[in-house]
Amino acid sequence: MKRVTGIGGIFFNAKDPAALRDWYRTHLGVDVLPWGGAAFTWTDEAGQPTGGTTIWSIGAADPAGFGPHGKSFMINYRVADLAALLQALRAEGCEVLDKTDDSEYGKFGWVIDPEGNQVELWEPPAGQ
Fold it and tell me: Which of 24, 87, 110, 127 is the most exposed place for a label (fewest CB within 10 A)?
């Protein structure tokens, strides 16, 4: 079974999101859009688009953070078959959160890594 197929997004919580976004814009050249993040389009070796994007986003600090351990960041990984992967992770003894989401943006599930980081798993809608 194919598991992770790419990185769908990287999400940060920040005490001062506007200042942090500006730092990334100024010093690293990240094209921060009005919604508070950037979308990096995937390309092949020749620079041609390949049909995917990686989202990078900074939001306001949340006392609860991401996941049960309150971390300040979360990585979202693209997966081919969310239900099968969650089932496999449970069978392997991983801490898989019971909650899943299914929306127009795709299917989402979460697992906690051994360091307590919440990892978001995302199966994009068909054709994306």
Answer: 127
Q: How do the pLDDT tens digits run along the chain, 128 residues long?
A: 889 988 999 999 999 999 999 999 999 899 999 999 999 998 888 888 887 889 999 998 888 888 888 889 999 999 999 999 999 999 999 999 999 999 999 999 999 998 888 999 999 998 77
Chain center to CA of 115: 17
Distance CA 52, CA 42 (A): 5
Q: Is the pTM of this model over 0.85?
A: no
Q: Are the CB atoms for 69 and 116 separated by under 8 Å?
A: yes
Tokens representing residue 54 in the block? 């990686």
